[in-house]
Design brief:
Length: 370
């Protein structure tokens, strides 16, 4: 069956909201997963509680500059000299780093220079100005290290941020792509569903048409069989109706008028039997009706109503052998619907109809105990 428009709309909304929800969920996940990135960069590069390569150099340089200041004091007191030595030793300790030795050529000469200064100071054999001057080379080296370390740190931060941003972008576009692909698949799926629905509907309509008599619009012989099977185990009455002298009617009025009479009788029979009755045209001038039949008396009553109804309708029949109007011959039988019982019920109703025909037509008969 083709889905009702509202049901289809509901399905569209459900699909769309589900896709949107999964898309949003994906985005939230991405944001949640990447939330640590920036604080992490900060934490990593600032290394709270630890000294970075740049900070070591800065401190070392500061110690050396302090030592220079202490050495430049006129007539330095012993305390100032000791402080200068300590500062140079501290500076040495921070300067003597494996990474500096490996990365910066000026490290080794700088450390040698500091060693020489320390040795001179220890022996008290030094020229203050010459010592201060000698300290400039390590200070310059440390400044170079500082600047280079700063640059490295900045570049690393930038690289890290950039690659994180790129990853985020890839994730965002991928989720967008997944979302769009989901929509496309959904659309293809819907289109396929619609096609299948349409094909099913077409098949259903064709089947319906194949079950209908095109002239009168009532069911045909196949529909009668199908309905009997659909009403299995129900007590039914089968009524067979045949128009009397229809050949003569056709001969008198022509086939188009004969067709009109067939349509009129189909309507009349349908109205006379109640709404629960189902009417079929078995071919030619023969109709059949299936009706709920709790007992034979009910069936007889319907047969009687049919005959009287046609009589009252007064459809003119100029070629009728002994009446002026169209008359019907009706035969009926009751049965419990089943594939096996139906042929017997049909035969019984047909025999009843035959008896009416041989008895002079315009009447009804019911075969009991079929
Ligand atoms: N107009 C019209 N006539 C049809 C159609 N189908 C069959 N007929 C005619 O119906 C007539 C049936 O004739 P018979 O079977 O001899 O029945 P009858 O003339 O009613 O005779 P009894 O049943 O013995 O009273 C034939 O002349 C068929 O040509 C149809 O679709 N339209």
């Amino acid at each position: 069956m083709r889905p009702r428009p509202l049901a289809r709309q509901h399905r569209y909304i459900t699909w769309l909201s589900l896709s949107l929800m999964s898309f949003l969920a994906l985005m939230v996940l991405i944001v949640y997963e990447s939330r640590w990135v920036y604080p992490e960069i900060q934490a990593y590069f600032s290394q709270t509680g630890n000294l970075t390569g740049q900070q070591l150099a800065t401190r070392s340089r500061a110690y050396l500059q302090d030592a220079q200041s202490e050495l430049l004091i006129d007539q330095p007191a012993q305390a100032a000299l000791d402080a200068a030595i300590i500062n140079i030793e501290l500076a040495y300790g921070l300067f003597d780093v494996h990474v500096y030795r490996r990365q910066y050529e000026c490290t080794e000469p700088g450390l040698v220079s500091l060693n020489r200064v320390l040795a001179g100071l220890a022996l008290r054999e030094f020229d203050r100005v010459a010592v201060v001057d000698e300290l400039f080379a390590p200070i310059q080296c440390l400044t170079h290290i500082e600047m280079h370390q700063l640059d490295q740190r900045g570049a690393a931060i930038n690289n890290f941020s950039e690659s994180t941003r790129q990853h985020n972008q890839v994730l965002t576009y991928s989720s967008l792509l997944i979302f769009v692909m989901g929509l496309v698949f959904w659309w293809l799926h819907e289109r396929q569903l619609r096609r299948t629905d349409r094909a099913t509907q077409d098949t259903f309509e064709w089947m319906q048409r194949a079950m209908r008599d095109p002239l009168t619009g009532v069911g045909n012989r196949s529909a009668l069989h199908q309905d009997v099977l659909a009403k299995q185990h129900q007590s039914l009455g089968l009524i067979l109706v045949d128009i009397d002298y229809f050949k003569q009617y056709n001969d008198a009025y022509g086939h188009p008028q004969g067709d009109t009479l067939l349509r009129q009788l189909a309507t009349l029979i349908g109205k006379t039997l109640n709404d629960e009755a189902q009417l079929y045209r078995l071919g030619g001038d023969e109709f059949a009706a299936l009706i709920f039949c709790p007992d034979t008396e009910t069936l007889k009553s319907y047969c009687r109503q049919l005959i009287e109804g046609v009589r009252k309708a007064n459809f003119a029949h100029p070629a009728h052998s002994d009446k002026k109007d169209v008359t019907l011959s009706v035969g009926g039988s009751c049965f419990v619907a089943d594939e096996a019982t139906f042929p017997y019920a049909y035969e019984a109703a047909d025999k009843a109809l035959y008896r009416v025909k041989t008895a002079g037509r315009d009447g009804w008969q019911v075969t009991e105990g079929a």
